[in-house]
Amino acid sequence: MQMTSPKLPAVSLDDLIAVNDEIQALVRAGVPLGKGLLDGSRDVGGRLGRITRVLAERIESGASLGEALADETNQIPPMYRAIVAAGIRSGRLAAALEGMATSARRLADLRRMLGTALVYPLVVLSVAYAVLILFVTQVVPVIRALVVDAGRPVPWFMDALARAGESVHYWWPTLPALLMLLGLWWLASRSAAVLSPTPVSIGLEWIPWVRAAAASGRNAALAEVLALLIEHGVPLPEGLRLAGNASGNRRVIRETERLAVAAGRGQPLWKPGETSLVFPPLLRWLMSSGDRGGSLGKSLHHVAQTYHRRAARQVDAARVYLPAVMTMLLGGGATLFLALCLYLPLVDMLAKMAG
Q1: Is the pTM of this model over 0.90?
Q2: Is 115 exposed, middle or buried (0-12, 13-18, 19+ CB in 10 A)?
Q3: What is the distance, to the nearest Å, from the Cα of residue 3 to the centroid of all Cα atoms in its chain?
Q4: DSSP notation for 236-253
């Protein structure tokens, strides 16, 4: 049954976390999801209330939770829908949603921390940019005229600054345009779609420590969902496909599909000595060893906790070092460039006057 109406409003990452917590609490309490979400929507206003009301109406009309989350505008990330499907298939929906909540909260914390880290260096960069424009348009022409009047050759860097001042009306909008694009990117990162591979989420992952934390979170989700499925007797090929979809990463999905085909044919998942750019060595070793004595599920749970702790350490490292790094790169770089622009012409002029 494909639900197309009513349509979900825009879902932010914080909205998805709140809805996830509500569904998890209702599942643990054994309360029917439709009635529980409808009652909750009356207590919560705004966009979050509309989201829960739409989901409640879909479920009350006979849709399953997976069908209720389906939406033609992709407001709910495919990764979240895959985790819900895996949780329903394993019979432990609350446990699957708990792991999802951990990863989503970690990503939301990284986003907020990145915003805080960018404020000061961007302010410094903007002030330095304004001073640079004032310098090349007002100060450099005066210094250059003094050098010419003294009959001295004009150095190349002073000519370059003078030409920059003459063409300032062409390039001065560059930094405001970049700041506007950065602001739009930042607003787009509020969407719940950042959980799945998108240009916004890929942009976040290029930031040091954020990429490592995201990779550890994906590995934790993969191990956790696969453990739930194995413990509840789901066949390995189906479990690999569901766990791969729950990771939200296209490379992981392709790799797990290949592994599912190999497992369905009774072939080893990896050949001896074969490496993988997707699965870390520990997870690959556990999956290759098979379910000996029914211990694979417990081992995967333990590995998932290990990756969760690793991601938490990486987030803490980002919280400590990222503000300083961003300040040095943006603020310090802009200040150094402006200082050189002021210092070199002044030193050259004084040297020529002394000569």
Answers
A1: no
A2: exposed
A3: 29
A4: HHHHHHHHHHHHT-HHHH
